[in-house]
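Risk mitigation, structural track. In case the binding assays with S-adenosylmethionine fail to produce interpretable data, a predicted complex structure has been prepared as a fallback.
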Amino acid sequence: MEKLSSPKKTIEIIQKYNFDFQKKFGQNFLIDSHVLEKIIDAANITEDDFVLEIGPGIGTMTQYLSEHAREVMAVEIDHNLIPILKETLAGYDNVEVLNEDILKVDIGKIAEKKNQGRPIKVVANLPYYITTPIIMGLFEKNVPMNSLTVMVQKEVAQRMQAGPGTKDYGALSLAVQFYAEPYIVANVPPNCFMPRPKVGSAVIRLTRYKDMPVKVKNEQLMFSIIRASFNQRRKTLQNGINNSSTLHFSKEQVVDALDKMGLSPKIRGEALSLEQFARLSDLLEG
Ligand code: SAM
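Fallback model:
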């Protein structure tokens, strides 16, 4: 079948099937072959790879993935897209389409079955309304994974890559950087999609660490501290922790831990690196 990655071909398919774009599913299909090639390049897909694609839409990127990978599994929630995918992916015999909600699929099990538990690669033009649950779900469930190369909202990509002391730095930066090294591959304007999204987009690659660079005794506690310190951005870290309903440390405990780290009691959360949050968490846990 002819490649889909042009506005003309996309419109042809959409009209043939009388397809209605569903806003609730974040449906903005890619119509730019340069962007698609950039994504495939950045993901560094080889003939050895098992690739999970989240939300194939009408199969535009799936065609590219199929040509580079050993095997592709594409998980699509919208049942109206399934007959379309049957047509657009006919002849691509290393692709399997699963009509499911990605948040309900056990990806670890699929990696075990289809890739003998070896790390998979995830590639997607993500539905933006569930970017964070999808990415954090894959990390937190310890799905064996080399990398995630995904299209996300531009501001979200910037937050994922931001470092301490910058305006975009926050709980999402730390959560992502605990598991992976982020790299923004390209910014993508709205005219590369159909229909055009209201926001700018960016492709970001998250390369999963094999050995976690930051060790912490209690991950849950560290992330509770991180959330508390960014809840009230303009307040000191100490106030953030004290005002949290989930953490129960006294002012003295927090000041004492900061002092042991050589940090001022007036420091704000946005100034601390991931390593420093890990150390603070370890000190507070005792
Ligand atoms: N990959 C296609 C492309 O680039 O043209 C479509 C990308 S579109 C931004 C997001 C896709 O994810 C849509 O096809 C949408 O139906 C699908 N989707 C939305 N929520 C989903 C979910 N919870 N599980 C699986 N797919 C979902």
